[in-house]
Amino acid sequence: xxxxxxxxxxxxxxxxxxxxxxxxVRDGDAHGGRTRETKDPKIVLGGVDSFWLVTGxxxxxxxxxxxxxxxxPSVSPLTATHxxxxxxxxxxxxxxxxSGSFAAVSFATAARLPVAYSPRDISHEELVARLxxxxxxxxxxxxxxxxxxxxxxxxxxFDRRPSGYGLSPSTIMRSVPVVTLKNRPExxxxxxxxxxxxxxxxxxPEKEVDLRPEHEMLQAAEYxxxxxxxxxxxxxxNERFIDLLRQYIANTINTEEMADLSAVIGLLSKRKTIVExxxxxxxxxxxxxxxxxxxxxxxxxxLRASLQSRLEEEMQSERARLSDIRADLADAETRLxxxxxxxxxxxxxxxxxxxxxRTRIAEAAxxxxxxxxxxxxxxxxxxxxxxxxxxxxxxxxVYATKTDLLPERKQQEDASGQLVIATEEVRRSIxxxxxxxxxxxxxxxxxxxxxxxxxLPVLIGNKASGVAADISVAIGGENSVIAFCDPSRISxxxxxxxxxxxxxxxxxxxxxxxxxxxxxxxCGITNGPCEYWVPQFIESRRLGKLPRNLAIIASAGVDxxxxxxxxxxxxxxVPILVPASARPARNLFAGAWxxxxxxxxxxxxxxxxxxxxxxxxxxxxxxRAAKTLSRTPAGIDMGEVAxxxxxxxxRRLSLxxxxxxxxxxxxxxxxxx
Length: 673
Description:
Layout lengths: L1 E2 L2 E11 L2 E6 L10 E4 L2 H6 L4 E5 L2 E3 L42 E4 L2 E4 L2 E3 L6 H10 L12 E5 L2 E3 L3 E3 L2 E3 L9 E3 L8 E3 L4 E4 L9 E3 L4 H19 L8 H11 L3 H14 L3 H12 L2 H107 L2 H11 L2 H9 L7 H15 L3 H10 L4 E5 L3 H13 L4 E4 L7 H5 L6 H10 L5 E6 L10 H10 L6 E6 L11 H4 L2 E5 L23 H11 L7 H11 L8 H21 L6 H4 L5
Parallel strand pairs: 4-7, 9-10, 18-21, 18-22, 19-20, 20-21
Antiparallel strand pairs: 1-2, 2-3, 2-5, 3-4, 5-8, 6-7, 9-16, 10-11, 12-13, 14-17, 15-16
Helix pairs in contact: 3-5, 10-11, 11-19, 17-18, 18-19
């Protein structure tokens, strides 16, 4: 057999103390392979009929043994009767007569294989019979490790005698220890009955099996039936005491007989007819019926007592639980009565307070009506006096006086106070200048401005705060607001109370001028706990509680102690990375920007068509992005702005879900400095 570079060989002859003849073993034939010589010491010491699993075969120089003119016996006649040492397992005789006529080989590894014997020409019953006589012949000089006594049952404890293999003298045939295979080892079966285990077998724990032939078992069964019959016969009352003692001794079963009886019962249990007849035979015996009735009655009594004890335990448990429930119910009734009493007191007090409040409201209403009447009377009198004064003053003089008394400085202030609105050309130019300064594409700058009135664009990077401030100043000029977040500003009210930022004034101006964009730059949004005010700001602006024209451009902190942002707040963020090559922008303000918050229906269809090419946006996100895209200023490529919106929207949607795996996690997650 040869597979995967491994070969099984058999030692057929030992030529000397260091040379052996081997042949390759094939399934069914032990001498069907190639024959070679080897000097491997382990194989030589193994002796004739030893089997080896070898690998790494290499050719060697031929081994030639010189012949003598007069061959000398390999072993002296004086020592021919001595056996080889069992320590080295050396063969008794060496054959020096053969010449090295075979190819010489050596092996990288050689492992001896266990060998077993399974009968082929005889039955298992005949094999067991020969083992009992000690005359079983196995065609192997080295012996075997196991013998198959029944199909799948192997005997591992036996003696090797000059006459052949046999069972150990202490072996009892009705309880012979045998083993079975736990695995399915790879084997080679030879025609002689030898079984070579190419892979090591794993034997199960021993179990005892009755290996007697069936006729011996039947004889034992007949003996025990006869003995049982004789024991049933009742002795007469006039028998002597010595006869009763002899009968008791005859009917007593010792340990040896008990084992034999167990084996017989095991045999009889396989006979279905006997098993079916035994209950009928036993049912006819009055003593057995009486014992059966007594047993049934005892079982009934035992079950009745067990059920009564269990019932008592359950009743005690239920009584205890019922008492607990009653105590809880009484406590609950007491508390309910107390609550009802308190409710009555509170209701009476509430009625008293309502009556007192109604009385005070009526008195306050009377006072207000009286005060309003007095003020109305005073205003009427003043209007009457003014009419009298105007009727006495010439009209031309009044007009001339007003014209002459208007200071020239006041006229200049009114003229300079008029708001200048930036045109489309100016706005496009400012966006281009911002793009060059902050090293970002025009489309990205345009999306920041477009989304600042709807979402919360958050610029990240080392220069994010400067870029947010530059964009805010370029849009709002002196009316822009730049606020810095820190751990002391926790709520939206804290930001409004900061007088240096002017955030409250910006909100008031946004309400006063709803058609203009009022920009606010919130720098370092992660320097404080923004989760307390970001949702309030976004939802309030969406619902109209805050002016929609209030544009917020935020930036994330980059160093120092910062606060991690929860996933629920990250959904509002639109992260935008600011390149490290960004530089400060000069003063680009050239007039206020119109809000233009309404959707341009003419551009909406084109915006939806551009955004539909991306499969990453859901329907709700696509409609929202399309409305934002439709407000793109004239002169800016909508396709580039659409691509920027898609990138930002994908980044915004993936930010809460990926957590630590996101590219921007160092700016928003676990950022304690």
